[in-house]
Amino acid sequence: MRRLVGDPCHLDGLVKCEKWIRDDDEKRSEESKTGWWLNRLIVQKKEVNFDWPFPFVEGRLFVLTLSAGLEGYHVSVDGRHVTSFPYRTGFVLEDATGLFLNGDLDVHSVFAGSLPTTHPSFAPQNYLDFSTVWQAPPLPDEPVEIFIGILSSANHFAERMGVRKTWMSAVRKSPNMVARFFVALHGRMEVNVELKKEAEFFGDIVFVPFLDNYDLVVMKTLAICDYGVNVVSAKYVMKCDDDTFVRLDSVVAEIKKVPSGRSLYMGSMNIQHKPLRNGKWAVTYEEWPQEVYPAYANGPGYVLSSDIVKFIMSEFTKQGLTLFKMEDVSMGLWVERFNRTIPVEYIHSSKFCPYGCTDDYYTAHYQSPRLMLCLWQKLLEGRPGCCNVR
Q1: Residue 127: φ, ψ to 5°
Q2: What is the rounded average pLDDT of the residues 238-264?
Q3: What is d(CA 311, CA 328) in angstroms, rounded to the nearest whole number?
Q4: Residue 184 · residue 225 · CB < 8 Å
Q5: What is the pLDDT at residue 91?
Q6: Does 34 score more than 90 pLDDT?
Q7: Are 215 and 321 contacting, i.e. CB atoms less than 8 angstroms apart?
Q8: Which of 162, 172, 207, 252 is deepest in the core (most CB within 10 A)?
């Protein structure tokens, strides 16, 4: 049995983080460390001993407190600080849509204090529970003008609710638009069980039949293309992420500026973009030997005409597509190939903002559910603009 030891970092008298290491870490390669962490995350096969006593005693009541501090969440039991963990990027406590406890625990009562005063103006039960208001209508019998495919992860319920309660409301009210979330399976069965319930209730989730993995995001994009032309027969297909706020009226207005029948590829374009060879997003020469990528639109939000999408699906069926792990670069590669025979109207606009929000945006990326609600409220009030709420 290997022992885990804590190496705590302190901030304002509280433990800011806990860096877990193994006794024999010094003797092990970086590769084996990574494999061990993956095994820990996916399934814990061996019992692990910790070197501090947890302040829980079977059969005795205790008070667990979760508080949000400057650097992250802090957990205390009976006034004793136990652990902390950092905020996930773009997520704050106010964005939570529920609280779940796993384990052999009997909860006697729950109290909430210091809740934000600017909480969304929905009835609490509607914010926390499923509501028929957010259910997707049946698919229209006729072809639609635009289909929006939204990449999402299985455990991103809060992000999907943020989309459903905001800009997707405009989609539900239009007979010429359809939007769906595209989600792969999670490594934990309980997450998939909850996801299945969500999908059955809201009717707006399309399952992609593989375990979620960054390198397979390109397959989700192909699923969006397939749905857009073979299920709803859309004239245009838009791809975005679940943390992207889409200002649909502006996007549609921009599309209408292009003469009907033109092959269209619209978004925030990257021209002569070079692959990163080092760091977290490094691409090896074996993966991409060329010095630059083809022109491609940033992944958080772009639009394609249906003729390009049909070509992509035809080539995929014939196993003629080159699949690259970066889905937006893959799309640029496919459009470039289409452009060799039929001219494509490449339209760049920085208003398809991949790095956050910009004035008079078409899409805004990295928007938490709370920010989406703020953006939506501003749109409803006729004063669209970015929200920089803290």
Answers
A1: -75, -35
A2: 95
A3: 17
A4: no
A5: 53
A6: no
A7: no
A8: 162
- Smallest CA-to-CA distance from 345 within 293, 304, 378 is with 304
Q: State how far the Cα of 308 lies from the Cα of 339, in Å rounded to an integer.
A: 9
Enter the tokens of residue 142.
């006729």
Contact (CB, 8 A) for 162 and 152: no
Three-state DSSP class for residue 41: helix
Looking at residue 353, its amino acid is C
Mean pLDDT to the nearest integer, 172-187? 94
Residues in the chain: 390
Angstrom distance (rounded) from CA 308 to CA 342: 9
Reported in sequence order, the residue ranges of 139-274 that DSSP labels E, i.e. its strands, are 146-152, 177-185, 205-211, 236-241, 245-246, 263-270
Q: Tally DSSP H helices, then E strands, for the chain.
A: 10, 18
DSSP code per residue over 342-368: S-EEEEE-TTEESSS--TT-SEE-S--
Instruction: Return the structure tokens found at 258.
Output: 């292009």
Q: Which amino acid is at 272?
A: Q
Specify whether the CB–CB gap between 266 and 362 falls below 8 A.
Answer: no
Q: Region 288-310: what's the mean pLDDT?
A: 95
Distance CA 111, CA 220 (A): 40
Residue type present at position 238: M
Note the pLDDT tens digit of each residue in 110-169.
Answer: 776 665 443 333 333 334 457 888 999 999 999 999 999 999 999 999 899 999 999 999
The full 3-state SS of 273-301, as one line of letters, equals CCCCCCCCCCCCCCCCCCCCCCCEEEEEE
Q: Coil, strand, or helix at residue 40?
A: helix
Structure tokens at 52: 């501090």
Cα–Cα distance measured from residue 182 to residue 242, given in angstroms and rounded to the nearest whole number: 10
> What contacts 373, CB < 8 A, 6 or more positions away?
120, 162, 165, 166
Q: Phi/psi zone of residue 272: left (φ > 0), alpha (ψ -120 to 50 degrees), beta?
A: left
The predicted pLDDT at position 327 comes to: 93
Report the candidate in 120, 359, 358, 157 with the shortest Cα–Cα distance to residue 242. Answer: 157
In Å, the largest CA–CA distance within the chain is 74
- Whether this prediction's pTM lies above 0.90 is answered by no
